[in-house]
Design goal:
Layout lengths: L9 H20 L6 H11 L2 H4 L5 H19 L7 H19 L3 H5 L8
Helix pairs in contact: 1-2, 1-5, 2-4, 4-5
Length: about 120
């Protein structure tokens, strides 16, 4: 018996696609020397997104939203060479889409040990 909640990945794929698109644009924009700290943080943030676009396991999406996303935001606190508030603002609407898509599963998600609750 499989008790893992499932979601149609298409519900969230547009948000992930937009996050990936913005992230790749930012990697191109901020690739200059002296910004390697940011580049490492952004790459870590983005590297699993193609997998998430095909994933139906709600807990995988919850891990991104409730652990990876906060870890990314926290990592940006150490970056001084660029306007990280700008980066966060770019992602906010996509993150809101993810939150809305995951909200029907909030009780199950919040029972798990993630960095943040949904």
């Amino acid at each position: 018996m499989n008790d893992i909640p499932r979601i149609d990945p298409l519900i969230l794929s547009d948000a992930y696609h937009r996050i990936l698109e913005l992230g790749m644009e930012n990697l191109q924009r901020f690739r200059l020397p002296g910004r390697f700290d940011y580049l490492a943080i952004e790459i870590d943030h983005l590297h699993n997104l193609p997998h998430y676009m095909r994933e139906s396991n709600v807990y995988v999406h919850a891990y991104y939203f409730c652990t990876t996303r906060p870890f990314y935001i926290e990592g940006l606190d150490s970056v001084t060479a660029i306007d990280t508030d700008f980066l966060i603002r770019q992602y906010e609407s996509s993150w809101q889409q993810l939150r809305e898509g995951l909200t029907p599963f909030a009780v199950a998600i919040n029972m798990k040990e993630y960095t943040e609750k949904l």
